[in-house]
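Researcher: Here's a chain I'd like modeled. Treat it as a single chain, no partners, no ligands.
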Amino acid sequence: MAKTRHFNLMRFITRARFLSVNKRLEWFPPFWLMGVKILEISDGWRRVRIKLPLTMISRNAGGNMFGGFQASLADPIPALACVRVFPGYSVWTRGLKLDFRAEGRTDLELRFEFDPKIEENIRQELDQKGRSTPTFEFGYYLSDGSLCTAIQNTVAIRPHGYKKPDRNR
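Model: Modeled as a single isolated chain. Structure tokens:
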């Protein structure tokens, strides 16, 4: 049976070097449909600011931002930052917790900063144990600058090919 080749839009966009990092992220199909706008990615992904617009699609029946929209954008940001800061490792989200503290009645701004203390702890754990599972705290802010949603995101940083040890042996 012959293999069928198909065009993979997501793979094309992530590998399109003629696009800036900001545009590749904005045009990543799930984010493009959400209408995100990259405000800042600086210091090797240690500082990230992204606008998540309140639109007809992102607005729930109460007129506020859907929590799912917020979760979808918040999920990969720390993992993407860790991939850039710690190349050569597999990184994925282990856990995500959102604490909705105010109604999302305006566009929201995701603000992520890679704390230098966390970065140093990760480096030490990678040197000593070969893996790390840090938790990052960041948030979404309303247009007036007040905190709307507090986020805790735990990522797994593992060597490529890592297999969880079987504890039953």
